[in-house]
Design a protein that fits this description.
This protein is an alpha/beta fold. Helix content is 49%, strand content 15%. It contains seven helices and five strands; from the N terminus they run βαβααβαβαβαα. It has a five-stranded mixed β-sheet, sandwiched between helices. It is globular and about 55 Å long. The protein starts with 7 loop residues before the first strand and ends with a helix. 23% of the residues are buried.
């Protein structure tokens, strides 16, 4: 019911249930509905990114109207209107420009690009590095340890992105 007739929808389901949400949603999508996925992660069983899941479940025609939004951002800070910068990626320039227009405010900056895989891999893996940095801090390790963890983490994110086809 919530999807009927909508011009745009934000998909925020956890990555592990996105496939099931999309199956239920598909018959109710308007023909020109823009879909913006803010889900981070890689599906456990298939190892597919959210763009791959969307394409598999919704088909190529609908997948062409999908964009993928990634931070870092924190809901509380956005709600407090603190300066925030995010990235949105889609294969279509028209789609990323539409999303940028929908989301941009004086405090919420949306950077656009067409590297869907890069945005998805970066968005998913940055959370792993952030958790590891938190563990390092809690263990009492120094700033050098955190810096090394982040530096190596960025290198590994880049390698995974390249292996998955990121630009």
């Amino acid at each position: 019911e919530a999807a009927k007739g909508r011009q745009a929808m934000i998909l925020v389901s956890p990555s592990q249930v996105m496939r099931y949400v999309l199956k239920d949603l598909k018959p109710h999508l308007a023909e020109d509905c823009l879909l913006v996925s803010a889900a981070k992660g890689i599906e456990n069983d298939s190892l597919l990114t959210m763009s791959e899941v969307l394409q598999e479940v919704l088909g190529e025609e609908i997948a062409q109207r999908c964009a993928f939004l990634s931070g870092p951002s924190f809901a509380r800070e956005v709600a407090e209107e603190q300066p925030t910068a995010v990235a949105v990626a889609a294969e279509s320039l028209d789609v990323v420009n539409r999303v940028q227009d929908l989301f941009s405010t004086e405090y919420f900056r949306v950077y656009t690009n067409q590297d869907v895989v890069g945005v998805e891999i970066g968005g998913a893996m940055k959370n792993v590095i952030a958790l590891a940095a938190g563990v390092s801090d809690c263990l009492g390790f120094n700033h050098h340890a955190r810096a090394a963890l982040i530096t190596r983490g960025l290198a590994e994110i880049a390698r995974l992105g390249e292996a998955k086809g990121a630009l």
